[in-house]
């Protein structure tokens, strides 16, 4: 059973192989259909921007792989907001817990009320500015 942790621990990559099967008949059919499509496009019978009826894929020219690794990569995508980053949320929670514990030890039980009032004030200001920006639109 795994215990929850605030830190991410790297796990070893498992060996996984997906077998690929070579089908010469299928490859020959694909090559022939591509050649026929190119010939029809050169003759002007079909247009390159028409949608392929079988696959539903539009032909845009060039390689379909171009940019596929950078556009949809979760590594490149950065969170748009401060609170969408899980690391930042963990840091805020840890600071609040350690600060609350230290304040409770140093000041006493009244510190919990101070934290409650401060939290309500911050939430109220956040809601006020959020509503103010919504009404401007």
Search tags:
53% helix, 137 residues, 2 domains, 4 helices, mainly alpha
Notes on the structure:
Keywords: Membrane, Transmembrane, Transmembrane helix. With 137 residues, the chain is mostly helical. It folds into two domains: 24-71, no CATH class; 82-136. 53% of the residues lie in helices and 0% in strands. The protein contains four helices and no strands. The mean pLDDT is 77.
Query: Helix content range of the residues, please?
Result: 40-55%
- The first-to-last residue Cα distance is 50 Å
Q: What Rg is obtained from the alpha carbons, in whole angstroms?
A: 29 Å
What is the total tally of β strands?
0
Strand content: under 5%
Topology pattern, helix = H, strand = E: HHHH
Transmembrane segments: 87-106, 112-131
Keywords: Membrane, Transmembrane, Transmembrane helix
């Amino acid at each position: 059973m795994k215990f929850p942790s605030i830190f991410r621990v790297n796990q070893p990559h498992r060996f996984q192989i997906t077998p690929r099967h070579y089908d010469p008949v299928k490859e020959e059919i694909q090559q022939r259909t591509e050649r026929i499509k190119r010939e029809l496009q050169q003759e002007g019978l079909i247009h390159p921007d028409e949608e392929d009826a079988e696959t539903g894929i539009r032909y845009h020219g060039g390689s379909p792989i171009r940019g596929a690794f950078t556009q949809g990569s979760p590594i490149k995508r950065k969170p748009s907001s401060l609170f969408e980053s899980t690391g930042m949320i963990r840091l805020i929670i840890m600071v609040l817990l350690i600060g609350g514990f230290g304040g409770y030890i140093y000041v006493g039980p009244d510190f919990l009320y101070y934290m409650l009032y401060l939290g309500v004030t911050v939430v109220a200001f956040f809601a006020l500015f959020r509503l103010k920006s919504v009404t401007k639109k």
